[in-house]
Design brief:
43% of the residues lie in helices and 16% in strands. It has 112 residues and is α+β, with helices and mostly antiparallel strands. The strands form 2 sheets. It has a 3-stranded mixed β-sheet, with no helix packed on it. A two-stranded antiparallel ribbon has the order 4-5. The radius of gyration is 22 Å and the shape is elongated.
Amino acid sequence: MENNARKFRLQINQDKTEYMIVERKNSLKKHKIGQLKIKHQKSERVKNFKYLGVILNEDNNNQIDLQKRIKNATKTYFTLQNFFKNKNIPKKLKLRLNSTIILCLLDRASSY
């Protein structure tokens, strides 16, 4: 890893480096692996982390992130409920807001 980074004139920041092994089912319990060493510095092994807004874990199970996205969509809907009930706002605008915000959040959640 260090050699490949050096080819592109990159340096690995050991303070920010963590690693995770992703496998199917519960096979991780059988294969406990030690620490990752780069230039005599050890990196921490983690069970999950957030990457580009998505929670990834070593079991490759996305239920935690899926539940979080559904919760956010529900919260957004109830926050905007007074807006949707307002009779002074055109129905077309309400439908557009519904499709762009709420359905977009649910669509992301269902794409898992």
